[in-house]
Amino acid sequence: MTSTFGKGCHLHLIDGSAYIFRAYHALPPLTRKSDGLPVGAVAGFCNILWNELTKDKGSDAATHIAVVFDHSSKTFRNEIYPLYKAQRPEPPEDLRPQFPLTRTATKAFNIACLELENFEADDIIATLARQAREAGGRVTIISSDKDLMQLVGGGVEMLDPMKNRKIGPDEVFEKFGVGPDKVVDVQALSGDSVDNVPGAPGIGPKTAALLIQEFGDVETLLERAHEIPQQKRRESLIENAEQVRISKRLVQLDDQVALDFGLETLELQAPDATKLMDFLNEMEFRTLTRRVADKLGVAPPEAPALTETAEAAPETPVLPFDHTAYQAVRDMGALNQWIAEIYEAGYVAFDSETTSLNEMLAEIVGISLCVTPGKACYIPVGHKTGGDDLFGGSALAPDQLPLDQVLAALKPLLEDPSILKIGQNLKYDAKIFARQGVRIAPIDDTMLMSYAMHGGIHNHGMDELSDRYLNHQPIPIKTLIGSGKTQVTFDKVAIDEAVKYAAEDADVTLRLWQKFKPMLHRAKVTTVYETLERPLIPVLMDMEMAGIQVDRDTLSRMSNAFAQKMAGLEAEVQEVAGQPFNVGSPKQLGEILFDVLKVPGGEKGKTGAYGTGADILEDVTTLEDTHPQGAKLAALVLDWRQLAKLKSTYTDALQEHINRDTGRVHTSYSISGAVTGRLASTDPNLQNIPVRSEEGRRIREAFVAPKGRVLVSLDYSQIELRILAHIADIPALKQAFRDGHDIHAMTASEMFNVPLDQMTSDVRRQAKAINFGVIYGISGFGLARNLRIPRAEAQGFIDRYFERFPGIKDYMTATVKGAQERGYVETLFGRKIHTPDINAKGPGQGFAKRAAINAPIQGTAADVIRRAMVRMPGAIAGLDAKMLLQVHDELLFEVAEEDVEKLIPIAKEVMEGASDPAVKLSVKLEVEAGRGQTWAAAH
DNA sequence: GGAGTCACG
DNA sequence: GACGTACGTGACTCCG
């Protein structure tokens, strides 16, 4: 069978160990049903292998393939340097038993499974890649590990499996600033904290790349180190020369490993169907077993009879999706039969098709229902005939029940408290039905169930959930309505096509619900779902439908004023620049500023463009003395940009959002959009209306109350700092809040030993930045940049802060540790925020750590205001008042003048007591109130 | 469609 | 001792 490996052959090398960790962290925990053995990582690993074997890669298809593993943690590198990879955390408890299983899996797929004592997987990969290259073949290394990048070139390339992106010499250069042949030199200098490669202290990747570009390689550099002008670099290199040499030996892969097999033995072979099916079946991977069985054309083995334990999920029969089985309901007889079935079942999955994503404008085109997996119907009510006639095809297509008749028949059912309505993003459908006078209740929402269980792991759109949990890819909407300019509305879709698509959505939703229902309980997030997600739907519906009155004339006048000012500024900009260019183009601006005018300090980012953000331009404006032309230009552009932003995003775009019928602006809140539990506002975003700048704040004058009514704003004072004080248990902070002190001034006083009555605004400002920094997972670099002070000074501040408030440091350490062990962090109310990147290596881990520190604080604050919002309608029911907007720590109400005095204390009490009784906070929450005819005045 | 920029908490 | 850095969002404009 085997032939020699040579020209025309293509070897795929899979970095197996990396895959296991990725699969483990990327996927929700999964255990084998029969005995509870953790198998999540094995399942993910098998899926990856199967995809690798079956996906069509055209000319990149493998002829030879192998999976390479690390044998153990000790390798020859530990003899060179005992600390190498010494600080690797132990793998999690439930991952360890899965390591041997992945080997078994690889063999079951009939793929060569390689590992060698004393060597890392990377060395074996290096050796095989060299052999293949020398034999004239091609190699694809499936990994995104930067340690492998030194191998790229000469027929060897890498493939990042997550991004599906090829990594060739250009990408390596982009990453390291040098070609593949110099990667080890750069790594030797910069070191690697994750692997404990020491490198030269004080030299990071950027400096390392510069040095290697100049000197060629590590050895030359070390010999000529005395020529380096920068004192720090020079000294570090001279002092640490030996350490750098060791580092190079650590990062240099060994491509001469003695292997006792030839490349030809890695030839790609079809898996042995029986062996593979046996393994998958033993692992109890139902869906993958079925997929593999389909593909190999063998019968799936009978599922072993499972002993039903108390908490095991009721078996969901795996039933293929069949679009031809869906029914079009075109007469009342059929509809009534469906209604009877729904009453019989007690629940129904439900979805609507409409003409718009904007619920305030959308018209119902059809409704789909599903009670049993695989059996669903679609009721067309608003489909139009083809667009052939002169009037744009506006005639109704034949054989459709009239909308009002369908609504009349469904209304009792949709409002029946004994019938559960299940949807995916039900707020959308519920709003549309509410406009037709139907209040859908009670409800379950699969999107929110997923959010409660898996926030932070993946998004919660139906296509993604279906793919992940049902292994099924629903018909993409684009195949029906197209995209871009030629996109049509759903009413133009032929009914036959619509039935397949729409009924499938209800079918998918029902299956997801059946799957999620028991999962929710096992993930211990039922309370979160029941108290923080689901009850928010009707509350947000009412807020969104109420909308807020926005005065078009005010916006329009401001827009004109902005346009005039911008034109003036633009002319000035061109004059200072000495040539015309597009002020709105950062690329052109950067070139004018740093290339043409030669302003010093221009820095190009990864895309090769100069950065021209506000902070950079602000720095340029300080060059008044040395470069007046650049300073002037930067100042003008900053002004221009502020106006451009205000005009395009606010004064212009906001007018487009004023609803024709209501004369008001209706935002849409996304409940599951932000991982921390915050809401997100879209179309338009009313959570980022300007307030910080004088000029911008005037936009809020356009947000008004109608005659006889008032806008009332209530916002939590320092809620995140208060929550931090409670969670981290900081007595000094708590006391300050109890005493009603200015918290930033108090911090400053503690830190700098300045009495409160001698506090300067500048010292207070610095303390405030530190307080916020703590909430964000502070770092010396970040604080230094924010305050524009030297890094060492910033670090000094942080050290002193931790000294004064030791609990903060403990909180941060404990939170990160918890995230690393469990894969998630929690809010005080039990919301889980998953942190899949927390054990990643590289800079991603830094991000993940800071996010993990921030999430319980931001998330708890988000939970608090959610609780207040859920209780608010009941509390203010007797008043002529409506809750209109939420801006993270603020609620905005519209109230009849005569009820203002009643509303404020009631709403305040609800907000201040929102954590009770679930959580007893050791810090009081305080709410401040404002009122006025406009939002500007109320704030 | 991604990157850059900037508005908010 | 240092990786590269503030946390969380959405909308608009340019440009390939």
From TrEMBL:
EC number: 2.7.7.7
GO process annotations (BP): DNA-templated DNA replication; double-strand break repair
Keywords attached to this entry: DNA damage, DNA repair, DNA replication, DNA-binding, DNA-directed DNA polymerase, Exonuclease, Hydrolase, Nuclease, Nucleotidyltransferase, Transferase
Sequence ranges assigned to domain 3'-5' exonuclease in this UniProt record: 326-521
Residue ranges annotated for the 5'-3' exonuclease domain, each copy included: 6-269
Superkingdom per UniProt: Bacteria
Cross-referenced InterPro entries: 3'-5'_exonuclease_dom, 5-3_exonucl_a-hlix_arch_N, 5-3_exonuclease, 5-3_exonuclease_C_sf, DNA-dir_DNA_pol_A_CS, DNA-dir_DNA_pol_A_palm_dom, DNA/RNA_pol_sf, DNA_polI_H3TH
Stretches assigned to the DNA-directed DNA polymerase family A palm domain: 696-899
Chemical reaction(s) catalysed: DNA(n) + a 2'-deoxyribonucleoside 5'-triphosphate = DNA(n+1) + diphosphate
Gene Ontology MF terms in the entry: 3'-5' exonuclease activity; 5'-3' exonuclease activity; DNA binding; DNA-directed DNA polymerase activity
Quaternary state and interactors: Single-chain monomer with multiple functions.
Family that this chain belongs to: Belongs to the DNA polymerase type-A family.
Role: In addition to polymerase activity, this DNA polymerase exhibits 3'-5' and 5'-3' exonuclease activity.
Protein name: DNA polymerase I
Originating organism: Neogemmobacter tilapiae
Gene (UniProt): polA
